[in-house]
Amino acid sequence: MKKWMLPVLFVLWIGGCDSAPLPVSPKIQELTIVPDHIQQHIIAKDRIQLLYEDNVTYYLVMFSKGNVLASVAAHEDRLVIQFKEGSEQKKEAQPYVYAITKSQELTIIELYINGKSIPIDRITMM
What we know:
By secondary structure, the chain is α+β, with helices and mostly antiparallel strands. The protein has helices at residues 2-17, 36-39; strands at residues 27-30, 48-52, 57-64, 68-75, 78-85, 94-101, 108-113, 116-117, 122-125.
C-alpha cells in the first residue's frame, strides 16, 4: 500500500503547484497626500475622474462639499465602488482621492453615490 501512495501524493503535489493564482480582492484607500504625478492630471471642473496606470492600479478623484466614505466590492466581472456623501456642506467642493487596487478580471467599473448610479466624467491614462 505504501508503494503506490508516494507516487499518488507526488502527482497531487505537482498538480497543486500549477494552479492559477487566486484573484486579488479589490481594495480602496483614501490618499491623504496625493503624489505629484497624480495631482497634475486632476481637473477640478470634473466631479468624478478616474486615472489609471495599468489594469490593476486606479485612482478615483471625487469633488464633494460633504464628507465622503468609500467602499469597494467585486461582483462577477464588475468592480462596484460605493460612496456615502455626508449631508453637511462646505462652501467649496474638496477633492477626495482614492487609490484602488483590483484584479484584471474585473473589467467593468460601477460607481454609486448614496445608492444612486453616477457616470464617470473623465477617464485618463497616465
